[in-house]
Amino acid sequence: MPAPGSSPTPTTGAADERQLFDRIDLHLIRVLHTVLTERSVSRAALRLGMHQPAVSTALKRLRELAGDPLLVRNGAHMVPTEAGQRMLEPAANVLRAAETLFTEARSFDARTSRLTFRIAASDYLDPLFLPRLVADIQRQAPLAKIEVHALTRESDYRARLALGEIDLVIGNWLQPPDDLHMARLFSDEVVSLVSRDHPAVRRGWDEAAWLGAEHIAPMPMHAGARGIIDQMLDGLGLQRHIAVRSAYFGLIPEMVAGTRLVLTTGRRYCERVAGRLSLVMLPCPVALPPLLYYQLWHARSQHSSSARWLRERTREAITALQAPFSEPLPLHP
Fold this sequence. Notes:
This protein has helices at 12-22, 26-38, 41-48, 52-66, 82-106, 129-140, 157-163, 199-203, 207-212, 228-235, 252-257, 267-277, 305-320; strands at residues 71-74, 77-80, 116-121, 145-150, 168-172, 181-188, 190-195, 215-218, 242-246, 262-266, 279-283, 291-297.
């Protein structure tokens, strides 16, 4: 007997329920649903492609498990008991769930899928990309849900991919992590964005003037990490003057518009925002390689048909936005 005030010891009820559950398999649920639907052991046997004695044996097991006859005779016919009638819809739900469990993995149907697609993306991309991708997913998979997550300093995207908290990561890396699957989406020329009143618009700039200008840069992905532009400059033995860092990349063009700050990033992004804010794109006088954008995913979703569908939608959304660039920007002396 437990001491006063102590927690009671677990009853045998939970253990008994577990043992009961362990005796139930999907085949029994299928027999249950068919017998209750057909209201006949012989018709159920025909529908299931089983011999009648095998169905009778399964029904006997079901009656023992339920503690109820489940199906009883009413004159010349059989009818479900109250307990049997209550079990009919739950049994159908179990069978539908089991079918979905495996068919979703093998043959994804976007039109009927109710999956949630979780995408983590950098906002350095073409600002029209995510709206385009979301619209495409909603049009082709109208019942699905979409979550768009930010790639932030606090987000360990590797761990979240491994745990299934996100399905796909989209962004740019100088060297993508080699422990994930990846596909390159596009490359982008590096340019600088300045206000129309910036002296470089009138006078141009050389490497020294560009390095000494007041640059604005996004916060790096991890504490102590270097941004991609600065990693490129490190490789050339160069260093620029960063006057401002911002965790809100989407607000940086507004900051550039009223100052002498310089934003250096991909041309696609700059082309979208330059006209809206009367900003000017200038070539970067340092010969930097193009920015490379990728989609990354974990091995856990490599063979998933729904995940492959999402990756294809991502590639198509990027392709649709890849209109030819305007003429190359002239390099100022």
